[in-house]
Structures are given as C-alpha cells and as structure tokens.
Amino acid sequence: MLNRRHFVTLGATVLGGAAVLPFTGDLLPPLTPTANGHHAGHMGSAALADATTVTFAPFTQRMPVPATLTPSQTTADTDIYTLPIRTAEAELIPGLRTPVLTYGGQFVGPTIRAEKGRRTQVTFTNELDRPTNVHLHGGHVSPENDGHPMDLIAPGQTRAYAYPNAQRASTLWYHDHTHGLEADHIYRGLHGFYLIEDKAERRFNLPEGAYDVPIMLRNAQFDENGALVFGHPDNRTTTLVNGKAQPYLPVAARRYRFRLLNSALKHVYQLNIGGVPLTKIASDGGLLPAPVEQTEVVVSSGERVEIVVDFAPHVGHGPLYLYDGENPILRFDVSPADGRDRSGVPDVLVPLPALAAATVERTVVMSMDMSLRPPIGLINGRPFDPNRVDIQVMQGATEIWNIVNADVSPFPFDHPFHTHLLQFQVLGRDTGPSLPEDAGLKDTVYVPPLGSVRIQMTFDTPYLGRYMYHCHFPEHSALGMMAQMEIIP
Ligand SMILES: [Cu+2]
User: Plastocyanin-like domain location, by residue (predicted)?
Assistant: First the structure.
C-alpha cells in the first residue's frame, strides 16, 4: 500500500503542499534561462506569440535506435538495473546542443527489455535539483511501484521500482509522473521504452532483432540556439523521431516491425508511408487477434501502435517517407536485402480475453474550466486531490466506463483518456462502432471534443490500493484532469 504520510510530506515540502491544490502549471520552474516555464498562454486557441523556431536541414541525421539497457545484476528470477536521472546535452537538431533531462544520459532513455515471467527491478537515482518519479505506462504493478504523482524521489535520493512482467508481451514506456511537473519533465526528455517479450510471440516469426525497431515520436519547439521552449503546443512544429529532428533511416528491402509510441505532450499523429500497406499487429496492450491492413495509423499522446512494413517492393525507387498527415517526418533509404527475409505475419495472432458480464457502470467526464487563470482540469467536475479517493473498485469486478469529453466551443479540447494498472477494451463510441485505433487491448484512448467512448475492463489484479486515471495530455493532468481509484477487496 502507498505510504500516504510519506507522500503527503514530500508533497508539502517540494510542491507547496496540499493547501494550494490543485497544482497549476505556473509552478513549473524554468530549467534554462531560455525556457518559458509558465502556462498562461497554453490554453487559448490563438496564442501563437513567441513562435520562435530553429531552422535546420532535414534528413541529415541518422535515426538512432535507443540502446538496450544491460542489467547490473541477474538473479534466478529478476533482472536488476540501475539508472541515474540527470541533466545532459543532446544533439536533437543537427549541430546544436540542447540541454535536456534524461534517464542515463540519453534523450530517449535506454530501452528496458523484459521477459514475461521474469521480474525487473530498476533503481533510479535522482540527480536532478527537483523531485521526480517513474511511472511504467501500461504496467500491471503494485501501487508503491506505480509512480503515484505524490510518491516522489527527492533530489539526491534513490528509489527501486519492481515490475513483475506477468502481463502479455507488449510495448510499454516509462516516464515521469511528478504532479504538476510531469508535462515539463516528459517534454525535456524523461521518456523511454519498456518492452515485454514472451515465447508465444517469438513463435510467430515476426521481424525480430535489428528488424524490430522501437520508434518514439514527439514534437518540440526550439529557439535559434537549440534550447527547448516550453510554450504553446501549436508552436511545437519540430518532430523528433527517436530524439532526432526529421532523421533518415537506412532499411533493407525486407519486412520490419516498428513499435510506434507517441510521447508528444499533445498531438495526434496520422501516420502513413504514402499509401504503402501498413500491417497493424499490436496496440497498447500487445498483439491484436489478427493483423489489419491499413494505409494510415492514428496514434494519440500516450498510445502505441505496432506495424509491419515490407520494403521489398520499394528497392530502387528512391526514398520513402513516413508522413504525419502530409508532413514528412522520417526518410527511409531502401537498400537491397542481404539474404532471404524469413519473417512473416501470421493470419491469426493472440485472441482478446472474453468480455465478462459487467456489474458496474460509471461515467467519467473530462473537462477544462477556462474561467480561471490558469485554467483547471476537471474529472467529473473536480480537480485532482491526492487526499480524495474518487471511486472504489472491487478487485475482480468487471466495469463499463463511459468516458465523456465535455469540452465545447470556444475551447474544444480533445483528451486522450488513460488508466493505470490494466488495459481495457473499447466497446464503441457515441458516433458508432470503435475506430481502427481502438482495436485490441488499450490503456489510452482518444476522446474528441463532445465525444464519448465506452470501455470495459476487468480488475483482475492481485493489487489493492490507489491508481490514477487521467487525461494523457500531461499539460491537462498537471492542471488537475486526474482522479484516483482505489482497488478494494
Ligand atoms: Cu486533456
């Protein structure tokens, strides 16, 4: 169980205390002299002042693949890692050094690869001058290991998180969840991949090894010196692909598995390769029941989608591009394959769990109160209060939640909804059946202005205690669009 006294004390010390809840964006301290730490201009629809940006030659940097972290120790059932959280400089824009926050000195943190059934322990040391914590997004973990937004690692302190990896093979990610600071911290680089793999998935003969490539997509605004600007989301016009602005990736004429993650604070990617078939194989919670051929995949903040792309037909025809809508964000340079491609995509992947009969229905309403400065994010009319349990859920229960976005003109915000602890299935939308991006097991789902989404989940968990559910535009959760559920016996 969460040590409440511990986290309330920490909160009072480092974040100003419960008396000033909800924490608001203007508590975000500037990290660099050029950083704009305040939020007041964020929420308006026309605030494009200070649209300063950097110019650079696109497609001149090679897209890196984040290094896989090596365990510092391995026991019979656990892989043990250590990872400092520290400042660094990274070359995000060609030729410029950008001050960033990192896991282990890398702007896209090292990838942690876990094997289903083996435990992972990661000991983080906070070398920053500010509190931080770590949330494993999509992880089925106990409350004390979930990175509750008030359960923080103080500067100079060390904290070990334990992850059981008892869930399906899937593409997860780890990121900061410090209440009020999560948007700033993620924006400056506290994000990395966490992959759970298993034997069943390996038997499918999907592209693997060098041909299984995690790709983190996000955007940012830079000043002319390459420093990150934390300003209006609409000014984040530079797309970073694995931490490089508009890079290129040499590929062989064969199949690749791309694990795409949207870690942008606020963006919906509409990804396509100019009509090239994209075989969608997985979403947030792992493999789909069957592959789906699409020419575009849509991925909102926090979501993951996995695709298999066959470059074999495209050798010798010049480069291909990965586009966000019509904007090229990654160039593929296709060279002949050396050796036969023995990978494939089977017709059947992993069935979804059967939907149990739901015994509880709830409505979760997300909205923003724009009458206040700064605005306040609300769930069911209330901003986040760490001392309040918003709902109690019976361990083992199956529930249907109707997720409603109540935001209307002139502030028609969209909100991606995210629950901690487990994945859900999307039953449908107010507009009709589910969208292609709703398929499979999800932990994050996009809800457009005035839209609603019905989801179902079974709280099949050994853990009791408090978990968050919130908007996954971190600037909205920082402003209070977050609530907590308590799992009870
Ligand atoms: Cu939101």
Answer: 91-200, 225-312, 370-486
Residue type, 149: P
How many separate domains does the chain show? 3
Dist. CA 157 → ligand 1 center (Å): 31
Report how many helices (DSSP H) and strands (DSSP E) the chain contains, helices first.
4, 32
Give the structural domain span for 184: 4-30+39-44+55-200
CA of 279 to the centre of ligand 1 (A): 29
Distance in Å, CA 436 to ligand 1 centroid? 21
Q: Tell me: the pLDDT tens digits for 149-183?
A: 999 999 999 999 999 999 999 999 999 999 999 99
Taking CA 280 as the corner, what is the angle to CA 274 and CA 284, rounded to the nearest 5 degrees?
A: 120
Query: What is the 293 CA–ligand 1 centroid distance (Å)?
Result: 30
Claim to verify: residue 22 and residue 140 sit in the same structural domain = yes
Q: How many Å apart are CA 377 and CA 431, to the nearest integer? A: 25
Residue 69 CA to residue 79 CA, distance in Å, equals 11
CA of 413 to the centre of ligand 1 (A): 7
